[in-house]
Amino acid sequence: MNLDRRSLLTGSLLLAAPNLRAATRDGPPIVVVGAGAAGLAAADTLRRAGHAFALIEARDRIGGRAFTDRSLGADCAFDAGAQYIHWAERNPWAPIAKAAGSRIAVDGTWARTLLIDGRPATDAERASRRAGFSGLDALLTPNGADRSIAEAAAIGGPEAVQAAGGLARLSLGEEPERVSVADYDRLWSGADLWVDGYGALVASHFASLPVALGTIAEGIDWSGQGVRIATNKGPLEAAAVILTVPVGVLGAGTIRFAPALPEAVEGALQGLGMGAYTKVALRLDPARFDLRAVGDAVTAARSDGADQTIYFEMAPFDRPLAIANLGGDGARELCTAGEATAVAAMTDRLAGILGNTAREAVTGGRLAGWWTDPFARGAYSVARPGHADAREALRRPIADRVFLAGEALGDGGAMTVGGATLDGERAARAVLRVLGS
Fold this sequence. Notes:
This protein is α+β, with helices and mostly antiparallel strands. The chain is built from 17 helices and 22 strands.
């Protein structure tokens, strides 16, 4: 296998080869697959180290699941994926956002309206829900065997079970019985900063990186001394590959490996699922309906506890939008049904809350359906009960040639852009150590 830098840089994939050539020294090239936060951070680390690399991305844009969607109009831009800088005290994106002058709000400062079965919740119902959440943290701590969030919450009774369902679906995008309580307990906590245009910030921060868009990795051959990556635009050869695609894509088998991935890696992948956190943005004509008069957020639930809890962001950053947030199996069904059905369903739910005036004001809608996105296959990774150690297992290099990275491997920062960024940097440093660079 020819691993010289010249043969890689002259390939048809490297559309920005002159910039890449000027930024690197001679040495074995590294291919980074995926230009989400992890891949971008990995490529940037390699660039700063002066090492030859190629960054490929299946989509026609960078950022992955950090994406500011402008399809409803410039005045209705919204973050279809990540929108919060979690654990901001140590998240690398907090200082980046502040330096860029991003518009930021601190989560938890808004009044929220709770409706149950389409009516305002009673004082007793509010008290019941508060009681369920107030004791939940104490219940969701590892105690012996790695249980599910549902099993751990059951000890606290019906109120805690209901709260656990809301937490799992609206925070993790998954049903509570499918989430490891030990993994959840390891996640970092801290302040949450709501960023206006998180996806745009990620894309802008890494805009100078050379990347081959529309380039889909179809196979990885690591049988030789180096690695050969098969793509829809031809093969790439490298000394090593940093693979940052979501674990949902890896688990689906859309990338062929030769030889097959080690059993330990396959087992770890089986221990991780993908949550189905979903958003449906509704554009409303401000001349027909003033969303600002409604309040900042509305949570609509059902009294029977079924998977129908929807959190509506009203006029986020003063834009004429109502954005429905939901997760779990109900969100999967909505994604599978398609955008038209999803927009109609959320319009119905909004009208049930605000009346037909709101329905008549809806002028467009957009489904951010990561569950059915072939390059994501879910919103973010979730460790299944009994598999809390799966993330760590995936961080180990495969034959010192294949390095996995991404939000799924992000330690306590898993499921976040910050965690993906830190893990991309980790993987790049690991490759450089192996190659002696």
